[in-house]
Amino acid sequence: MVPSNESMTSWIEDPGVDRWRGLSLSELGVDEAFVNVTSTIKETLWLYILNEDCERCPYQRHTILNTGETILKMSTKRNLKFRVLTDGGADIVAVSNHRVCEDVTAELGEFGVYDFLLEQNSDDQVSCNLTTTKECVNIYLPLAAILAGLAILALASTFLTCVIKKTIMYCKEKKTSGKVTCEMSDYGVDDRGTQVSPKMTKHRIRSLDTFRGLAVVLMIFVNDGAGHYWFLEHSTWNGILLADFVFPWFLWIMGVCIPLSLRSQLKRGVYRWRILANVIKRTIILFGLGVMLNTVGHGSDLETIRIPGVLQRFSVTYFIIAVLGICFTPRTSSAENRFPGSGFREMFQDVIIIFPQWIVVLSIVAAHCYFVFFSPVPGCSSGYLGPGGIQDMRRFTDCTGGMTGYVDRLLFGVNHLYNNSEVTKVYQSEPFDPEGLLGVMPSILQVFFGVQAGSILLNHGKCKSKMIRWFIWGVINAVLALVLALPGIVPINKNLWSLSYVFTTTSSAFFLLCFIYFLQDHLRLWNGVPFKAPGMNPIILYVGHILTYNLFPFNWTYGKMNTHFILMIENLWTTSLWIIIAYWLYYIEFFLSI
């Protein structure tokens, strides 16, 4: 329903009145409305509902409707469809001969009041009419106002920074070197893979910290609730929303840094076995820390403790990619000795150097495709990628996630998987863990795309060369995602970590790094605020925001907390507090690395 002009003037989602036709609007929560069902038909009816978020789902029985009025609270988060039946014996229905009237689409809005009238005409035909008696509030105005305010702050910060610092820094660097080289990394090597001379000025590649900081800030914001806007949260099954980009961006930027770190250590003469020992140590710490964080708010019962998780996925993918790098990364940084011809070497050296690793990674991806699409799953069809549950009239009710879900249930057991996912609620399916075992295999590809980006950083000197290559890799991934997703061959699915999901998020990562690098390291128009410092202490912020989730001042409530506006304010408060902590740590020069 379209909000009225009066409602649209409310920037804080104020419905304007406390009561409407005897209904207390204060009893409504966020994304809720009242529906007054009035039936003049002198027989018992049943209301069935279909949520648009439930793909290929049947109508689900909602409530009984007696003659007279029935007041219902309805979710306005996604559009609904109503179906009224005379027979309520089945909990789900696809097609029914007992339908009273045609399906009614309900586009309900927050704090709205609606009449759903069921009446029988003189010719014994039944009509079902949904009308608005009180307009909903506009939930997008608070978001627009907050985004506008943040944009103004960001522009003001950037402008002041440029006015105060840019000219002075540029002139100083120009006098020092005669030529500013934004290609210098902070790892003791330049971007052509040669040892940095002590006389040459080293510049940290600040865009990497900014990219990582953007990911961690978004993760804190999303985990805290994202204002309870559905399009800022995770998608239920197929599809992709804002929150679905954060985790793969983290994995990808981790991959970018792996070759930089390895190259630096190898050039310093560190033995490979010592590097491997540090990798194993870090892997164990990350995995153990992830399992520990899984007990926050859920208890530490060993019979039900969740085993997979975010940091666990980080640890396993990091270990595999780092070991590949240790085995195949040459101590010399150029492909010159192995591939003659300066033109070929200059153009493809970023791929040539890591080509053996590409072969291993693509073999892992091929094995994943075989397991997912061709391996038989008991009671399910091979290659099934659906959520199971009530989808397709419960045809695959115990097949949630196909082979991906089956492996987790077999190895970990249902009690050790994530059991509070949205897919379980929407599809009434069995527990499914989005960070399960088989998802590690395409995640390895995700991380290795980051390694490719890091290889470009190390092996190409000019800013233009880097950005062109990042852009090309972004286009390649975008095309692959479209080829797989548009025909429905492999839907974009974060829960399954499908290949189309990997290509989509990797494409965005290449484009985003290219953009940030251009602004920050090439043009130097942006100092990375407010993401720079969070990107230099990501593990503290990630662990800290989980441990303090229900602690003041990181979390607070005021009143009913039943509007997007107040929830967004609280979520931004939490996120801002962690940004401030990150900058304080940056100021005292405290940086934690595992």
UniProtKB/TrEMBL annotation:
InterPro entries with a match to the protein in the record: HGSNAT_cat
Coiled coil spans: none
Pfam families documented for this protein: HGSNAT_cat
Keyword entries, A-Z: Membrane, Transmembrane, Transmembrane helix
Domain Heparan-alpha-glucosaminide N-acetyltransferase catalytic: 204-316
Positions of transmembrane segments: 139-164, 210-231, 237-258, 279-298, 310-330, 351-373, 437-458, 470-490, 496-519, 539-558, 564-586
Entry keyword ATP-binding: no
PANTHER family the record matches: LD22376P (PTHR31061:SF24)
Name of the protein this chain belongs to: Heparan-alpha-glucosaminide N-acetyltransferase catalytic domain-containing protein
Organism: Polyplax serrata
